[in-house]
Amino acid sequence: MSYIKDRWYCAAWGHELVRDPFTRTLLNEKVVLYRTEQGHPVALGNVCPHRFAPMHQGRLRGNDIECPYHGLRFSPDGACALNPHGSMIPPGLRLKSYPVIDRYAMVWIWMGEADEADPALIPEFPAHDDGGYKTVGGMIPVKGSYQLVADNLLDLSHTQFLHPILVVPDDPETRVEHDILQDGDTITTIYNQRNTRPFGFTGLIWPDAPERLDGLSGVRWDAPANMLLKLHFVSRDPGDDRELRIWGAELVTPETETSCHYFWSASRNFRLDDEMFGQQLGDAIANVFTFEDGAMIAEVQANMGDETDLIAMRPVILPTDQAAIRARRIVGKLLRAEQSRKGEPEQVIAQL
What we know:
Distance between the termini: 19 Å
Strand content: 25-35%
Shape: globular
Mean pLDDT: 95
Number of helices: 5
Number of strands: 17
Oligomer: single chain
């Protein structure tokens, strides 16, 4: 499986990077992450070029990282800063250095050519920096291709069947709306449930919800798989102008061909000072994805085996699949363009 390299991926939450190095596999590459004494993020290849020792097990010496095996030190730009076994530094004695940026409480990494790294390509997640919202979040490992997770999030119709807490009561007065918008390579899918009665999730977040409300949801997708989920719950009572909002970052970074890191958040505009509620909300979201979405995606990947191209397996396509299909086509287009630009052989991607 080939990956788009010249795009930003979430490597970690900002609070994860401290002065203790740790490793994470991203796009099949082992990366060591830490912060300098000045607080700047650093991402380097995690394999020492000498005897292939894991760099994350080494110690930080100032801003440099020391190999735990033979003491070679590497600076944040990947260059060897010290060879304790002689003054000569052999050619090739360096680690790969990745551009990284702190933004929206996340650490973004560029896995491709460093001189192509454009911060303007990082999608916006403004609620993380907005004092009118309170955010909880985390990272969930998923045993499935990153595109299966994107497929899942781009088709919210599954919530009525996979997630008991999100099941909307059967009601002839409830109206479902579904639409797909596309602006260049950005896709937005809309899934609204209007004039519904309160249900499990609204009972958690809105105990005194009105008898009738609109549940408005949408997902903005940017390649490779960086999504913004917006949930709005609005009272249908003309005298009640309350609107509860939850904006969620849904960032899916490949680990291997058949596993990925799912970074998620939920930024709410209500009950901002209720820490216990924030914990309950975070636990509910994490449990829904871990034991329902994540578990189902793992089963789907197991049935697909080592195949990661869903379209190559000729699935039956439903109308609600259109956003996911468009996203896969855009990934294929960007990947082919990148491979052509770099003179690499193009990956064959099945098309409908």
